[in-house]
From TrEMBL:
GO molecular function: transferase activity
Organism: Aquimarina algicola
Domain of life assignment: Bacteria
Keyword annotations from UniProtKB, A to Z: Membrane, Transferase, Transmembrane, Transmembrane helix
Protein name as catalogued: Phosphotransferase family protein
Cited InterPro entries: ACAD10-like, ACAD10_11_N, Aminoglycoside_PTrfase, Kinase-like_dom_sf
Domain Aminoglycoside phosphotransferase: 34-261
Bilayer-spanning residue ranges: 295-314
Length: 350
């Protein structure tokens, strides 16, 4: 947590009136304290403390286009699966009224627990057995998420499963080209390869699209229970192996080159975590899903993360954000494109 970054402040009077009108506070003049969560790179997340209550507010980043920062999607998905998938925060209210904050936003409960960023992992000095438990709990939650009956939850119109893989390849390629700030030869090779080597038959389920250690909240340091899965902004109906591929893209290993560990920092790089290949084996066993075209899914995951990094850097490059964390994300995007092309050439994910 930190004080609110300059330029990312909330409109106090308008927001307090909104909270009062929604019955979340009893006095629109109440004193409050606002802090900002620091680990996210996309949507902005704030902790509101007032009247002995704590609420979390989520809004798009300043200067961002609506696509990819759909607050209504996040709110809708979490609201509808709340009764069947207990690992989401309780949703309180959502609004598209831009007279309040200048953008859509929603309010949810604050979930207590541990978000395992790389900084948190270092501070806790976790051992190999800890990480074995962490990885197993993380993966069990992932498999459970993919098994959610989305029709029963009322999410059958969330996405269009048919043609999902093809659309993803096309759309992420377009988004990369739109946000490109320099020439990265590997990016063009990866886009061409994915277009020519994508699977044409696949299953579909509810997918999260950003499932990694620092997007879940562990109940406590026994690491055996997840109380919440966070950041549902890209959730949809699609191929669950695309979801797995993205998670593998984030899954930095202790055996990866130092430049990779620095460019994609993750607690998964500590000893005790399974390798990427072991994650695939465990997912196959736990989910019962057969995995073919693994290199495609891994390369796509790396490329998608590259696009996300490049889009954030593009906003920084254009002066739409001053967050210093974003200043080298173009290098991360280049690294990820190179890793994707390397996987394609070697046909290996480790």
């Amino acid at each position: 947590m930190q004080t609110v970054r300059k330029g990312e402040e909330l409109r106090e009077e308008a927001l307090k009136k909104f909270l009062f009108d929604k019955g979340l506070i009893t006095d629109s003049k109440s004193e409050w304290q606002v802090t900002q969560f620091t680990h996210g790179y996309s949507n902005l997340t704030y902790l509101l403390q007032l009247e002995n209550k704590e609420y979390v507010l989520r809004r798009p980043p300043f200067g961002a286009i609506k696509r990819g920062h759909d607050m209504s999607r996040e709110f809708n998905v979490q609201s509808k699966i709340y009764n069947s998938f207990s690992q989401v925060p309780k949703m309180y209210t959502f609004t598209e009224d831009d007279t309040i904050l200048g953008c859509p936003f929603y309010i949810m409960e604050k979930v207590d627990g541990i978000i395992l960023t790389i900084q948190e992992a270092k501070q806790r000095n976790l051992n190999e057995n800890d990480f074995k438990t962490i990885a197993n709990t993380w993966l069990d939650t992932f498999v459970t998420l993919h098994a959610i009956d989305y029709r029963e939850a009322g999410l059958e119109n969330l996405g269009k499963p048919e043609g999902y893989v093809q659309r993803q390849v096309v759309n992420w390629s377009k988004q990369y080209l739109k946000a490109a700030t320099e020439d990265i030869p590997a990016s063009k090779k990866v886009m061409k390869w994915m277009e020519e080597n994508q699977p044409v038959t696949y299953n579909h389920s509810l997918i999260h699209n950003d499932f990694k250690y620092d997007n879940i909240v562990f109940k406590d340091n026994t690491w055996q229970e997840v109380t919440a899965v966070l950041d549902w902004e890209m959730a949809t109906l699609g191929d669950p192996l695309m979801d797995l591929g993205t998670s593998l893209g984030y899954w930095t290993m202790s055996t990866d080159h130092a430049f990779v560990q620095q460019g994609i920092p993750s607690p998964t790089s500590f000893k005790g975590n399974p390798s990427r290949s072991e994650i695939v084996e465990l997912y196959t066993r736990k989910s019962g899903r057969e995995i073919q075209n693994l290199i495609f899914y891994y390369a796509f995951g790396l490329f998608k993360i590259a696009v996300i990094a490049q889009q954030i850097y593009y906003r920084y490059h254009k002066g739409l954000t001053t967050d210093p964390r974003f200043s080298k994300l173009n290098k991360a995007a280049e690294l990820l494109c190179n890793l994707a092309y390397q996987a394609i050439q070697t046909k290996k994910i480790d």
